[in-house]
Amino acid sequence: MFSRPKHLPARARRGPERRTSGHPAAVLALAVSAVLCGNVARADSYPSIIPQGLSLIANQLNHGSNKAKEVFANIPNGCVLSKYNNGSGTWSNAYFSAGSWMPGTLTLSPGEGAYLQSPTNFTLTVTGTPHVPVLPVSISPGHLYLLSRQTNDIGTWDNIVGTGPADGTFAYTYNGGFTAYSYSTDDGFWTPIAPSVPVGSALWIR
Hints:
Layout: H1 10-13, H2 24-36, E1 44-50, E2 53-57, E3 61-62, H3 68-71, E4 80-85, E5 90-97, E6 100-102, E7 114-118, E8 122-130, E9 145-147, E10 155-156, H4 157-161, E11 170-174, E12 178-184, E13 189-191, E14 196-197, E15 203-205
Antiparallel strand pairs: 1-8, 2-7, 3-8, 4-5, 4-7, 5-6, 9-15, 10-14, 11-12, 11-15, 12-13
């Protein structure tokens, strides 16, 4: 039969506790470990200043199924969301009225882009969990795409598309009007400058 060493205090004789469930320190340690290991998705958010009128918009976080009613829940009545479908070159529209989107099935996922028509200026706060970018994006030369960075940060050609631009590529930003950018492999740079878009916005490319 095992006997405890007499020279140890009573508490020490018991040996280390193995059961950690329920102990505040243990719960905290497990939570931190899960986050560091990627087992728990951390919440995030970012604000976008939306002007009255038309603006390009993007969703750069995952929120449920990324439906407009989940991502853009708190916006003014009268807003219209027009998503460009890159594969078909068509548009899908949804209208916000009486506190809900119609239809309620329109999605806007990280990497996609849309126009938002707003009747007033407001600050849009998008919440969700960080999206893991999938790059490069498959594009065909000469086709029109509306794309955005897949994480909530400033978007450039490199982090939106994931490959270098081909000769003769054009990109367009929109801020109440279009600004065009062209790329030449002979010179190896963009004219007039390399295009970029702010957090929560999208970039036209062709």
